[in-house]
Amino acid sequence: MAMSKRKRAQVIRWVQYAILVAVVLVVAFTANWGKIRTTFFDLEVARNMFPEVITVALVNTVIYTTLGFGFGLALALVIALMRLSTVRVYRWISGIYIEFFRGLPALMVILAVGTGIPLAFNTFLDKYVALMIALGIVGAAYMAETLRAGIQAVPKGQVEAARSLGMSPARTMMTIVIPQAFKIILPPLTNELILLTKDSSLALFLGASVSEYELTQFGRVELNESRSLTPVLVAGICYLIITIPLSYLSRYLERRTGGKKISTPESTEVKA
Amino acid sequence: MTRRPTLKVWALVPALAIVLAGCGEDGGSSGDGGDAGSGGPELVNEGKLTNCTGLPYKPFEYEENGEVIGFDIDLVDLIAKELGVEQEVVDTPFDGIQSGADFNSGKCDISSAGMTITDERKQNIDFSDPYFDATQALVTKKGSGISDITDLDGKNLGVQNSTTGFDYANENAKGANIVNFEDLGLLLTAVESGQVDAGINDNGVLFDWVKDKTDFEVVKEFETGEQYGMGVRKGNTALLDVVNKVLADAKSSGEYDTIYEKWFGTKPADN
Fold it and tell me: Domain Solute-binding protein family 3/N-terminal, which positions (chain B) (predicted)?
């Protein structure tokens, strides 16, 4: 087969188009469209979900996520500073924390906090508090590494300048380094917020009263009352209402910070 | 010149599509179920009677030493034996079972999940003849001062999602704060840890639970006249006929009573 390079590239491209068309045709011909329409796009079922799906479920998802993110960020800052500490034991503790909670499924942490703490300490734990702690613990493990990378990405000259002006090391960290680190890590932090938004769906395993339903549980309860999967679709769209703008925000921030590359948890090896 | 190979490739597209569509249809029909023997009901997995149930629901179905056992499981074993196949248990959330989604998506053939026959569920799935009489019951910590559903005003009452207890609580415990749990295990853990003041569920499972948890007691039963039935995909009469025949045979032969006594410690009241 004597084909010029260009011709070959062209043929390969057309083969790719052909595969795409074939897949689309197969799906179009084999899918039961009538059934898909009634199971996923039942307008009456969807209408019945409003306005609670927004006023209760979406709002609760946002509340759980925000609480978890806030608590997680504070915890992450402490752990990141411990990670950079000159006290060796602090470095060990923070290293173990990060490895431990990055390695566990979020669901296990939520169950451990939501049912373990009340059993162990014989107390009543408010659902909002339980989720704040559980989602915070999960988020902190990732955010701590991001924060550490951000702190280390602040140019050394900034620290030296602050120190030469007579600032104490602690004040340098708080007023010079950390604010700049946050600016650098805003895009990865936004991504973490997206991940936590999705993890908040696991709240359903802790049980909830009607006013505490978040999107996933709300969708599942509606699913029982209707015969269609439409509630799942509606709940899914509500997640996208939260996550897609966030991911655009993340990309916008990334562009604004000039695409400065910093190492994220995924790309950083934790040195014990 | 340059357009020629393009056109040739396009010519192949319909052929490819037909071939692939053919594959797709073949895959679809074998997914719907191979024949289980001569003229028997079609099963989603050849050689297996796939049973969708929600674990744990002791003593109806629960896991012990890596095996799923229980009253329901023994009964379905009888049906599997009649069909000459093995039972395979799939643990799945209850809402997928009662909404018919698990049957319609070809996940399983039958569901024995301590499931009460209700008109609402009948719209989504077909039920066998009733095989167990149940009532709703209220479980709480000893000395909690709760003796009836009316004592729960302003307190937390745990229920299990999609169950008849959930409906009963919503209708009769208007003053209570109803907390909805995913399965029985999570509900009972919440009762134990004090996250809810009381829990409502079927009497069979709650009486079984308080046998181990001696700090807790069943304080009240509500005669709801409920009966459990096994579920199958709507319109699957071939399988339903077998199920009903096996249940009737087991009752007349005394096999049902033996299984009942094995799991509940007593003989059934009437049959």
Answer: 48-267
The CATH number of B135-226, from 3.40.50.300, 3.20.20.70, 3.20.20.30, 3.40.190.10, is 3.40.190.10
The CA distance from B232 to B226, in Å, is 19
Would you say residue A165 has pLDDT above 50? yes
Residues of B in contact with A32 (CB under 8 A): none
Domain boundaries B48-131+229-264, CATH class: alpha beta
Report chain A's C-alpha Rg in angstroms. 24
The ipTM value here is 0.71
The C-alpha of A206 sits at a distance from chain B's nearest C-alpha, in angstroms, of 7
Instruction: Provide the greatest CA pair distance for chain B.
Output: 92
**pLDDT at residue A98 above 90?**
yes
List, in sequence order, the alpha helices (H) in chain A.
Answer: 5-30, 33-40, 43-48, 52, 59-83, 88-103, 106-111, 117-121, 127-153, 156-164, 169-171, 178-199, 215-225, 230-256
Distance, CA of A205 to CA of A105 (rounded, Å): 13
Asked if the structure places residue A201 within a domain, the reply is: yes
CB contact under 8 A, A227 and B123: yes
Distance from the Cα of B83 to chain A's closest Cα (Å) equals 30
* C-beta separation of B271 from B251 below 8 A: yes
DSSP lists the bridge partners of residue B139 as B199, B218
Q: How far apart are CA B187 and CA B180, in angstroms?
A: 8
